[in-house]
């Protein structure tokens, strides 16, 4: 059986993050263009559509990349990898049905999106198709350069289409159609490269359901913070006018991208920490502490830079019509350090020790508190009310995790281990 290869950890992380930047961070380049070309109202519609698309993508993605990357690394042969690919196709297809119904319902209930029904339907299709991106498979099979090349093609195509055809506020309806065309090309290229590695495009329904079962805890926990952030703009579009959606949308995009920077690392490091828990628990704890320190430091730097630069950076990048986004961004950025601590405790301390039930309960509690609080708060205070609901949810999750750790006795084991630098990833000796 193939083992995790520690000597390649840093190279794998670098390649994974480069692919991530190309895939998810580049839309930030388009936000100033949308704001200046479409105006605040059109920008609010685009933000609501992106929020819905990203929410649907995360529902269909369902933690599959992390589970699939782990399974692929340990697959014995090409037949095993082919079975993994087929089960992922089936699992995603099964989730497409309820997710599409949810997406269409969200379009109908959102005054912002229902005013543009074709745009709304295209948004739903974009979210569903994006979840089938095979980048996780390229990365886990050592072909990060192939994934990066495909991502760059998609990046260049979407930018060219947007800059070529979107020139006036009246071109709003074209935005998601052009993004969908780029996504179709990118997906076709990805599956064209690996088409011979399938033994069959789809597995049995049972295999797809089994994959969903094995991925549900990772989805519930790791997806909670990012999913709630991406869904918040869509929910706000139901509760508040377009101006509030636009004000919140700037902060939502920036915070969602910053927060999800921790996600690619999980595809590489969760299998490694899980392996070390069984072989050398103390070394596993040191590595987990290093991961926590690295991402927490990065999040605190992000908070400081946001406080210092937001007042002049937002108007410079987006235009004077987005001044109302500045106070929202300054408060919303406080979600970053809270979420980093929460995700690291779950991914690198609890999941490797099979505390899945604890994480599932904590994730559900967080979602319930955030959504219940968001309805009255966002209805009365718009964007700032939605931010308050998100902060309340993260604080609830942190409190729930700490209480669970204390009661289970894991806090003593975690506290007894020192820390190690994050990039000291090559273990000494065997393993």
Protein described:
This protein is an all-alpha fold. It has one domain. It is 81% helix and 0% strand. The chain is built from 17 helices and no strands. It has helices spanning 9-25, 27-61, 64-73, 78-109, 111-114, 117-130, 135-140, 144-165, 175-194, 205-239, 242-259, 263-279, 281-318, 325-332, 335-350, 356-408, 410-415. It is globular and about 60 Å long.
Overall average pLDDT: 79
Overall tally of domains = 1
Helical fraction: over 70%
Q: What's the alpha carbon Rg, rounded to whole Å?
A: 21 Å
What's the SSE pattern? Answer: HHHHHHHHHHHHHHHHH
Unreliable residue runs:
1-7, 418-431
What is the overall silhouette? globular
The count of helical stretches stands at 17
Structural class based on helices, strands and sheet pairing: mainly alpha
Cα end-to-end separation? 14 Å
Largest sheet: none
Strand content: under 5%
> Can you count the beta strands?
0
Keywords: Cell membrane, Membrane, Transmembrane, Transmembrane helix
Protein name: Oligosaccharide flippase family protein
Pfam families: Polysacc_synt
Family: Belongs to the polysaccharide synthase family.
Short overview:
With about 425 residues, this protein is mostly helical.
What does the secondary structure layout of this molecule look like, with pairings?
Elements lengths: L8 H17 L1 H35 L2 H10 L4 H32 L1 H4 L2 H14 L4 H6 L3 H22 L9 H20 L10 H35 L2 H18 L3 H17 L1 H38 L6 H8 L2 H16 L5 H53 L1 H6 L16
Helix pairs in contact: 1-8, 1-12, 2-4, 2-6, 2-10, 2-11, 3-4, 3-12, 4-6, 4-10, 6-9, 8-9, 10-11, 10-15, 10-16, 11-14, 11-16, 12-13, 13-14, 13-15, 14-16, 15-16
